[in-house]
Design goal:
single chain, 284 residues, 7-stranded mixed beta sheet
Length: 284
């Protein structure tokens, strides 16, 4: 069996996104890091240019995706979901916030071993871990063993629905590579009566403004993170067909622009570059 793919090169982005959450007031102060503050300051000039030329920047899209995923998760919990797994959790404050709000919730945060260990220590130091809020290591490409997706999901009650979240992960891989994980996830969710998968995605729709600019930015980010950044899908129907081919029953695509004025998300000029994909497995 071949070794699982190494995804450690993208972990540094957790520092930057973690700082964006704290600056926006949606994360507890203890999530703030010196590394994140440094990256936040270093990228400030580029963010300024992006906001004034493109009509949005990285911070804008980070906040759009985070608030929209939160919105859908709130709705799913209100509809009866009591189990959540967040993969590649990094310094996301979501597990901490949602476990405080919903005492019935079981929340597993997962990441590569080093990041998972760091997250666990951070949450332990502030006394917010419990039997229903835990951190586990994972490698999404591991076929078996303690790092595998199957092992993580086996910690849950498979007689109840589950939500799986990945945020800031899938575009770091070419479509054929991340599709390996999607196929594995669809199969694993079959063990539950209902499985919902929420993820952000940056599609490259045909005719989208700044099409070439996005491709250049993707290549630059890939060089920095030593990974192959990919912009998946050129149309909504293409994404829907692809997810069904991976074994999911349905795919909804959420556009942040549809929630302007309803959610506390920043507004971009023109069509937002991020989408939230909601793939389902099992009966509604």
């Amino acid at each position: 069996m071949s070794e699982p793919r190494d995804t450690s090169s993208i972990s540094f982005t957790a520092l930057y996104t973690g700082h964006v959450w704290t600056r926006d007031g949606i994360s507890a102060p203890f999530f703030r890091t010196r590394g994140g503050a440094f990256l936040y300051g270093a990228l400030a000039p580029f963010e300024f240019v992006g906001r004034h030329i493109v009509g949005g920047n990285i911070r804008t899209f980070l906040l759009q995706r985070h608030h929209l995923i939160d919105h859908r998760l709130h709705q799913l919990i209100e509809a009866g979901v009591t189990q959540v797994v967040e993969i590649a959790c990094g310094l996301s404050p979501r597990g901490h916030r949602f476990c405080q709000q919903y005492p019935q919730l079981t929340y597993l945060e997962t990441d590569l071993p080093d990041m998972a260990h760091r997250k666990q220590q951070l949450l332990q130091e502030h006394g917010v871990l419990s039997d229903r809020h835990r951190v586990m290591p994972i490698n999404i490409f591991a076929e078996d063993g303690e790092l595998s997706l199957t092992h993580v999901l086996s910690q849950l009650d498979q007689s109840k629905p589950v939500v799986v979240i990945t945020e800031g992960l899938v575009n770091y891989f070419p479509l054929p590579v991340i599709s390996e994980f999607w196929t594995k996830l669809a199969t694993a969710l079959s063990a539950f009566p209902q499985g919902t998968y929420l993820t952000d995605n940056y599609p490259l729709y045909r005719g989208m403004p700044f099409y070439r600019t996005l491709k250049v930015l993707g290549n630059l980010l890939g060089a920095v993170s030593r990974s192959q950044v990919g912009f998946h899908f050129h149309a909504d129907d293409e994404a829907i067909a692809h997810f069904k081919a991976q074994g999911f029953d349905n795919l909804l695509i959420h556009n942040p622009a549809d929630h302007y004025g309803q959610l506390p998300i920043p507004v971009t000029r023109g069509n937002p570059m991020v989408r939230i994909l909601e793939a389902t497995k099992g009966n509604e």
